[in-house]
Write a structure and sequence with these properties.
Chain A: It is a multi-pass membrane protein. The complex is a heterodimer. Chain A is mainly alpha-helical. Chain A is 69% helix and 3% strand. Classes of the chains: A mainly alpha, B mainly alpha.
Chain lengths: 260, 196
């Protein structure tokens, strides 16, 4: 599938998935509370460097993954730039009112979307789903019936996509017009959902028979623990946050310190 | 009848996750559309925002057990994280919050009502959850008043139409296919039909 393109394993792949998830969620909230655009720009740049050199993907793949970010940047920034409130008017045309405050707030939002997006991509590019769920069971004590259900469901994904294609061809061959909003969604959703539910029920019976739902002690095929890279991971992000904060405060790019 | 164990059985969990992942696929097809309408800046995108809550209302309507709405929303959003969306982490956190808010409404009705009203109310509640997140993330309070009103109106209306009304009609259509038999094996009417 799409995410199985050529790549090297980097040290980020070796870190503990649960730890990585927790650290990145904390960073997510940290980014929400950064209101100084200078700090945010520094932090986004740091994440971008990590994305380019830490994930182990080829330059070509990285460019393709990064392209949608431009659209996200523009779409996130534009409505705040044009319709946000502010005092120093730069430009006014009908309802569109660009002010200095709203412009920088828009830029800030664009960088925020960038930073949050990069956090998510760094996680998903360096984490194998199987390892994530094994780690969640071992480190965070997620119940096996949840974890194995997730893993089983992920394996059904290719089948769902194939069925989606089948439905598409079947509708085409019968000359069903390819339009309509809700009715079109329904034409696809009903067969896809009903087939998936039937399949899920059959698989669940098999899994219950094999005691995947049991709650007693169990052993795991993949034993996932902690290592030196986990320490490195935590230290790296503490340092990154610290440095981007201080550089942002002492060497600002723009004179606005708070976009609120 | 065999007394069922407390909480969700593996079959419930697996079905919930699978339904959520079907919607995960739909979201994946959906988000480029969403992004394109979003650029215009007049919040046309907010009308389709409700699509993001439908997994929780539909699984609730089908499985009718506590916890499935939250689980469905988490599963749908983590599907997006695993598939490598740019929104990855953000979607996951939004998903947890929206799922919790939807679940709260179902809990308030003690998991006994399964009609358009309750499901729409849960969609409204999930919308409130999403707005709380947006408040921190997008400074929506700093939009001009008319623009913000448009934004809110579009999101609430869209949520009620898609995750409320449309979810109920999807659930009814799925009942007809017979896939819900596992959760509601034999009703009174079925026995009456036998006795006729």
């Amino acid at each position: 599938m799409k995410w199985e393109i050529h790549r090297r394993e980097t040290w980020l792949h070796e870190t503990n998935p649960s730890l990585k998830l927790i650290v990145l969620v904390i960073l997510f909230f940290a980014v929400l509370f950064i209101h100084n655009p200078n700090v945010l720009i520094n932090f986004s740049l740091a994440l971008f460097v990590l994305f380019c050199f830490g994930t182990g993907y080829s330059a070509n793949a990285l460019v393709w993954m990064f392209l949608p970010f431009f659209l996200i940047f523009v779409s996130t920034a534009s409505s705040m730039m044009m319709f946000g409130e502010g005092k120093t008017t730069w430009f006014r045309w009908g309802l569109i009112h660009v002010t200095e405050e709203s412009f920088w707030r828009g830029v800030h939002l664009g960088f925020r979307a960038l930073a949050l997006g990069l956090l998510g991509l760094i996680f998903s590019l360096t984490t194998r789903p199987v390892h994530l769920f094994y780690s969640l069971m071992q480190q965070l004590k997620l119940k096996p019936k949840y974890a194995y259900s997730f893993l089983a469901a992920v394996r059904l994904l290719p089948m769902m996509i194939e069925e989606f294609q089948n439905v598409h061809y079947a509708l085409k061959v019968r000359g069903v017009p390819n339009r309509g909003g809700f009715s079109k969604v329904k034409r696809y959703a009903i067969p896809l959902l009903s087939q998936s539910i039937r399949r899920a029920q059959r698989i669940a019976v098999a899994m219950e028979a094999k005691q995947f739902s049991g709650s007693g002690p169990r052993t795991f095929y993949y034993e996932i623990g902690f290592g030196k890279y986990d320490v490195l991971f935590v230290i790296l992000f503490v340092v990154l946050l610290f440095v981007s904060y201080h550089v942002g405060i002492h060497y600002p790019y723009i004179s606005i310190n708070d976009v609120r | 009848m065999v007394k069922t164990a407390r909480g969700l059985k593996l079959a419930d969990i697996l079905t919930t996750i699978v339904i959520a992942i079907v919607f995960g696929v739909i979201y994946k097809v959906w988000s480029p559309v969403y992004e394109v309408v979003k650029v215009f800046g007049v919040h046309a995108d907010q009308l389709v925002y409700g699509m993001w809550f439908i997994a929780s209302s539909l699984t609730y309507l089908l499985i009718r057990k506590p916890g499935v709405a939250l689980l469905a929303e988490i599963a749908a959003s983590s599907g997006e994280l695993i598939m490598g969306s740019q929104w990855g982490l953000e979607v996951l956190i939004y998903g947890v919050v929206q799922g919790l808010f939807a679940e709260l409404v179902f809990a308030a009705f003690r998991y006994r009502r399964f009609d358009v009203f309750v499901v729409s109310l849960s969609a409204v509640s999930a919308t409130v959850g999403s707005l709380i997140m947006d408040f921190y993330k997008g400074y929506i309070e700093a939009l001009a008043p008319w623009n913000m009103a448009l934004f809110l109106l579009a999101r609430f209306v869209g949520a009620i139409l898609i995750s409320g009304v449309f979810a109920v009609s999807l659930a009814k259509a799925l009942e007809k296919t017979g896939v819900t038999q596992m959760w509601r094996p034999a009703s009174k009417e079925d026995y009456d039909a036998l006795n006729r």
